[in-house]
Design brief:
CATH superfamily of the domain at 813-855 and 870-1011: Leucine-rich Repeat Variant
Distance between the termini: 49 Å
Number of helices: 60
Helix content: 55-70%
CATH topology of the domain at 813-855 and 870-1011: Leucine-rich Repeat Variant
Number of strands: 3
Strand order of the largest sheet: 2-1-3
Strand content: under 5%
Radius of gyration: 45 Å
Largest sheet: 3 strands, antiparallel
Shape: extended
CATH class of the domain at 813-855 and 870-1011: Mainly Alpha
Structural class: mainly alpha
Length: 1046
């Protein structure tokens, strides 16, 4: 896995675990609950894991390494299981959580072990040492850490184990003691109403669990309920006096909180098990809900649902029963609304919650009930309840939404009570509350007077726009409706734009009056917009409007429009619209930029826009037609006019963008050279404290032009060599390259590139650089970790490595470690660096033979001296610092690696370097040939014969011919080389003998060997070869090395 992927992996999991921490803690908010202790401890471990993953994200971002095994899914699998585990305990009562503590403890232990194992699987990756230590610490915490429980908690936990509970229930004393401990842990009295309510909630949870989790869990809860009931009765009163148990608790122990006005059994449909709305009687005399029995008959049944065979399927309305049900509902409604009103005024959270739910149910059952509820004055208390009880807001908002639907009077009462401001404050809070708040605001915003209040609420527009990107589509869609309903004042539109909702701003910019257009342009000019917001603004109409404003006579309007374009043209989409507008943007912007009448600030902004456009379009110019003429016009205007420094830096940035563009580089270079750009750039290379970016861009342009115009660039600099080269070197002196910002690094790279691009054979340049004391300046860049700086430094030093250079220059460089530095540079990821390193090593290696110190016997006792190790290639004492020996520098393996990588120019340079190891100036070619062959170089050379450039093929043929003079390599590689050499001999050039440096005698000798082998191949070949002269021709036109191999 790459570092960037590892970064995203760790970041995503960090956020996921961080969300689980509060979820785990909030399963039980009662600190007295044993479940709270267990889960809070586990939440602490999860918090440590979230922090660890966040640090792993930073570590991966800071390092470039191969991260293995991260996406094995182990952590993700455990987190998914944990999320499901926590969800199963959400909104459960305290007693239910307590009863499940043994299961919770086991599951937490399982998750802890699994998460520890998952961390173990990612420790094998390329993390930093510090990070690996952190991972190990968190892993150890999951393995060994456990919650701190006191003796009572341990006793309760052990007693609640399923295998222990039966024996506890059977033992009255133990049962009473355990129930008392449970009540004390919650700080409740067994005879209190609160404990009775807890029992009621537990029974409700038991029914839910029975439906969801099956009988096993339900049976355990039934046993736990039996324990509690038995313990309560035994503790409060003796068994003979159970009737004296307080009424709330006794009712809870005997029945299920039956509704105050329970419907008669005859009101209940046997099919739906619900109170009937339209009862009908069938032939059997039984009464059913009309819709239910019609569906029964439609399915083909001819028997009564209760089993009786029917003579017919006719049915008739049971009017009497329907009237009775209606009367019951009326009486029941009165009782229900009275109870709801009383509960609403209660101080108990549970009573208030029941009231809200009951009022909502009544409205859902019959829409006219909302008028009755409003007439009893319950709307204002509901709004106040939402203000006071945050935990009830979601349910209150849901009830208010039903009460407000299609009821303007109810809406007005709610708004008068301050509902809008409460709804706005609830945005971006809990997701459930936020959803209900948005739905209610969407309903209210349809009335202009209410939408005005919404827009005036502090922070409302900003919060609403933020919710536009909510993951919940229902919230996002509702917010769009609200924003469309809000008053479209300039102030509101600006607030929306500040929250990156740009559509209203674009509409106002295009369709608004002069003052509105100016306000919108100013907003665009000062707003920090992400790319997505700029894309929303990028329409033909909006860009055309801004270009029209640029041509205005009003200076404020003109400057605001240009500054808006400065912001927007940082993305290509806008630049394309500027270039392809009805009146192309450059036709409007460039004349104003060239005008000395315009203010410096405006010209600077105009230049900034043009630089953005030129840079953005450089890779794919639009419009494509007349491209050359357009670029020619821009270059000529930019070079012919005087610009203030604030604008000049942007002009140069635009020209640099054209020079780097895939679609514009050739044209821009041609135009710049034709307009004498190199000469014009030289004064800009001087230090400019007012606008340093002028020099930074100028030096980069000069470097780019000098790469393909080396002689011209050298000629310009040599006009005043001392001053010009000193200026370039001043950019490199007294700077710590490891600590500079990116712009300074770019400047240093460009300065080094100019030096590297100077013609190597130009002695005046070399002399000028030496006089400017160039080499010490270059030395400080050799240990840079910046790839481009290393590359250009290697190129700049290359001229000083030539064997024909100044006396002792090679030795001085070698003593400074330059040879080994070039050897290390062969491992660079940049092909140009590898090529330059190989060429420098070629230069050094050409001098190795003459600088090698020969070992000669001296004196009578020379035979008693210890053996002195000599270089087999140079037959003398070799050191990297004294004679630059490639063998001593261990340069052959990296040179062969360069050839294997396949970059044409770098491979060509590397082969040329290897040829110096078998050069005619050496005592023998054999040691060098052995060194290359034993380093497994022959297969790489064979590959060059098939894929290399013409020059590299010719040198590879020559090098192979020399190596294959040795019989062991002919035998080992001959068959592999044959077909490749045939191809080279048929399609290659005739420069092999020139490159080899052979004299006529050597070639004739090779021809004689070839002739002998050719004649062995048969009469036809012998006749064709004929004489030695013909053999030479045959050598050049057919199988050069193939025959030699044979």
């Amino acid at each position: 896995m790459e570092a960037m992927t590892a970064n995203r992996w760790a970041g995503s999991l960090s956020q996921r675990v961080a969300k689980l921490v509060p979820t785990t803690r909030n399963v039980s908010i009662e600190k007295e609950n044993l479940a709270h202790t267990l889960l809070t401890h586990f939440a602490t471990l999860l918090d440590a894991l979230a922090l660890l993953l966040k640090d792993m994200q930073r570590d991966a971002d800071a390092r470039s390494a191969d991260y293995k095994n991260l996406q094995n899914g182990k952590l993700e699998e455990q987190l998914e299981g944990l999320e499901n585990f926590l969800e199963s305990y959400r909104d459960k009562c305290n007693l239910y959580l307590l009863s499940n503590c043994p299961q919770i403890r086991k599951r937490v232990q399982i998750f802890s072990r699994a998460l520890s194992e998952a961390l173990e699987s990612v420790m094998q990756n390329s993390w930093s040492t510090e990070m690996q230590l952190r991972i190990a610490q968190v892993k150890e915490a999951f393995e060994s850490s456990s919650p701190k429980l006191d003796a009572k908690q341990h006793a309760i936990l052990d007693s609640l184990e399923p295998e222990m509970l039966d024996s506890v229930v059977a033992d009255s004393a133990r049962c009473t003691k355990l129930v008392q401990q449970i009540a004390e842990s919650f700080e409740l009295k067994l005879d209190s109403d609160q404990f009775a309510k807890e029992l009621s909630k537990l029974k409700e949870d038991k029914e839910t669990v029975e439906n969801a989790k099956g009988k096993a869990q339900a049976l355990y809860l039934e046993q736990f309920l039996t324990l509690l009931e038995k313990g309560v009765v035994a503790k409060i009163k003796p068994a003979s006096e159970v009737g004296a148990v307080p009424m709330p608790l006794r009712r809870e122990l005997t029945m299920r909180n039956a509704p105050l006005n329970t419907p008669l059994q005859s009101f209940i449909c046997p099919i739906t098990r619900d109170v009937m709305r339209d009862p009908v009687q069938i032939a059997s005399g039984q009464t059913f809900e009309r819709e239910a029995i019609e569906r029964w008959f439609a399915e083909g049944h001819t028997r009564c649902p209760l089993g009786v065979e029917l003579k017919s399927t006719k049915m008739k309305s049971n009017i009497a029963l329907r009237q009775s049900i209606a009367e019951w509902k009326d009486r029941n409604f009165t009782i229900r609304i009275q109870d709801a009103e009383a509960n609403l005024q209660s101080t108990s959270f549970e009573d208030q919650e029941k009231a809200v739910q009951e009022l909502q149910r009544m409205c859902e059952e019959y829409s006219m009930n909302k008028y009755t509820i409003a007439s009893r004055g319950l709307l204002r208390p509901l709004v106040r309840l939402a203000e006071e009880q945050r935990d009830l807001r979601t349910k209150v908002f849901a009830a208010l939404r039903i009460l407000a639907e299609d009821n303007v009077e109810n809406q007005e009462v709610m708004v008068e009570e301050g509902l809008i401001y409460l709804l706005v404050r609830s945005l971006a809070r809990k997701p459930e509350a936020s959803l209900q708040a948005v739905l209610l605001l969407s309903m209210l915003s349809k009335r202009p007077s209410f939408s005005e209040k919404i827009s005036n609420a502090h922070g409302a527009v900003l919060l609403l726009v933020t919710e536009l990107h909510n993951e919940n589509e229902e919230i996002a869609e509702s917010v769009k409706i609200i924003l469309e309903n809000l008053p479209t004042s300039d102030e509101n539109i600006v607030v929306m734009a500040e929250a990156n909702f740009m559509k209203p701003l674009v509409t106002r910019l295009v369709e608004g009056g002069p003052s509105s257009r100016l306000a919108m342009a100013k907003t665009l000019a000062t707003l920090e917009m992400p790319e997505e917001s700029k894309k929303q603004v990028a329409t033909e109409e909006s860009i055309s409007t801004l270009l029209e404003m640029v041509q205005s006579n009003d200076e404020e309007e003109k400057l605001s429009a240009v500054e808006a374009l400065v912001q927007l043209t940082t993305i290509r989409q806008v630049c394309v619209l500027v270039a392809t507008a009805k009146t192309p943007g450059p036709n409007i912007l460039v004349p104003l930029l060239s005008s000395a009448k315009e203010s410096v600030g405006l010209r600077s902004a105009l230049a900034n826009v043009m630089a953005n456009v030129m840079t953005s379009l450089a890779d794919q110019w639009v419009p494509a037609e007349d491209k050359e003429e357009q670029i020619h016009t821009l270059v000529c205007k930019f070079l012919s006019f005087f610009f203030p420094p604030q604008a000049q830096c942007h002009v140069l940035r635009g020209l640099l963008g054209l020079l780097k563009g895939k679609d514009t580089a050739d044209i821009a270079e041609k135009m710049l050279m034709e307009n004498n750009a190199l000469t014009l750039l030289v004064p800009m290379l001087k230090t400019n404290a007012v606008e340093p970016t002028i020099r930074q861009h100028a030096v980069q342009i000069f470097a780019a032009l000098s790469e393909t115009n080396r002689e011209a660039a050298a000629a310009v600099l040599l006009n005043d060599a001392r001053a010009n080269f000193s200026t370039i070197l001043s950019m490199l002196r007294d700077r710590n390259v490891r600590m500079e910002d990116s712009k300074t690094v770019q400047e240093q790279v460009a300065a080094l590139a100019i030096l590297a691009n100077m013609p190597l054979e130009n002695d005046l340049v070399t002399l000028s650089l030496l006089q400017a004391d160039c080499i010490p300046v270059l030395f400080k860049y050799l240990d840079s970790r910046q790839g481009p700086i290393q590359d250009e430094a290697a190129g700049a030093l290359l001229r000083f490595t030539a064997p024909t250079g100044p006396k002792d220059m090679q030795l001085n460089l070698a003593e400074q470690g330059v040879v080994q530095w070039y050897v290390n540079l062969l491992n660079s990821s940049r092909s140009s660096s590898r090529e330059r390193a190989a060429r420098a090593l070629t230069n050094f290696s050409k001098s190795s033979a003459k600088l090698s110190v020969a070992v000669t016997p001296s004196g009578f006792f020379h035979c008693f001296r210890p053996n002195i190790s000599t270089c087999p290639i140079h037959k003398g004492i070799c050191r990297v610092e004294s004679n630059f020996c490639l063998k001593e520098a261990d340069a052959v393996p990296p040179l062969l690696a360069v050839i294997k990588d396949g970059d044409p120019l770098a491979a060509e340079a590397a082969i040329e370097t290897l040829l110096t190891l078998v050069d005619d100036d050496l005592p023998s070619y054999e040691p060098g040939a052995h060194l290359i062959a034993k380093s497994k170089g022959v297969p790489m050379l064979i590959n060059v014969l098939n894929n290399g450039t013409t020059a590299s093929q010719e040198m590879a043929v020559l090098l192979c011919e020399i190596i294959f003079r040795l019989p062991e390599y002919r035998a080992q590689y001959g068959s592999a080389l044959q077909m490749h050499v045939i191809t080279v001999a048929q399609k290659g050039s005739k420069k092999a003998k020139q490159l080899a440096g052979k004299d006529t005698r050597d070639l004739d000798s090779a021809a004689e060997r070839i002739l002998t082998v050719v004649k062995r191949k048969g009469p036809e070949n012998a006749q064709r070869a004929g004489t030695r002269a013909n053999a030479i021709d045959y050598l050049e036109t057919q199988v050069l090395v193939d025959v030699a191999i044979c």
